[in-house]
Amino acid sequence: xxxxxxxxxxxxxxxxxxxxxxxxxxxxxxxxxxxxxxxxxxxxxxxxxxxxxxxxxxxxxxxxxxxxxxxxxxxxxxxxxxxxxxxxxxxxxxxxxxxxxxxxxxxxxxxxxxxxxxxxxxxxxxxxxxxxxxxxxxxxxxxxxxxxxxxxxxxxxxxxxxxxxxxxxxxxxxxxxxxxxxxxxxxxxxxxxxxxxxxxxxxxxxxxxxxxxxxxxxxxxxxxxxxxxxxxxxxxxxxxxxxxxxxxxxxxxxxxxxxxxxxxxxxxxxxxxxxxxxxxxxxxxxxxxxxxxxxxxxxxxxxxxxxxxxxxxxxxxxxxxxxxxxxxxx
Length: 330
Ligand code: A3P
Known about the structure:
By secondary structure, this protein is α/β, with parallel strands linked by helices. It is 39% helix and 9% strand.
């Protein structure tokens, strides 16, 4: 079944005042405001279909990787794929799929796939499916969030590094976008998938309502595991173990003995993935961005090379005002 993309919605779907067409566009970034979030215009048909239950039917065992853009999505996709597929594809195998396909081709973005009319590809994936999304928690359908058979893994990153990474990324299609403009857009909540604080807090609060530090499910909700890029950089192996436990595939003693976790970390390292031909040449099939643009530099703290002390101070004050009282220290 190939679901044709829907036309852009004419009405405000945000549940707000409902006073006519509430979509707002930003020609500088090609984004539109949809249900309170700035998304790429081309994703909206897919988001609408997913929300209406037409483009995607959740299945028992589904694992959905969620993130704001430029916060380590590509890395998380690789790690989760290598972890969940390790039975069929040992991470040290010379023909591992991640050596031949980009992480984005191994783990598709639901809204992009459905927008493109390729919803049937999601149906055809074997269980347990591994999918991804940039959709905020509030825009996910209840068939996912209220589904104890689904699991959500979220990754976020120091928002100051996210701004820098986003700026470099968006300059591929828009070379005239200045860092200052990117910074202002982000502070106004208008960066891609912004306001970023709503995106992060949506998943953080959903994860907080779970019992246990690894987001064990309430009986009525999808469990949420909240990961942080900086912690993964510090200790990738233990974060991979946490991920494996969360998806119900903990590493056995025999796997620990044979260093499977280290093999996964090595396979998915920035150095390894960015050196592969498949992650260099041409565009990612579904997103159309150059493959190499997903592997810029990696690591922590590049904001120091781009933000003035005044900018950093202003941004810290914004973080403090948005995350104060949430229990999340960003
Ligand atoms: P930088 O632009 O700071 O280098 P996303 O995948 O969400 O688009 O995020 C992209 C960011 O993750 C980029 O950050 C990119 O370099 C970094 N990244 C990509 N692959 C990585 C990996 N294997 N390990 C660590 N960071 C990675």
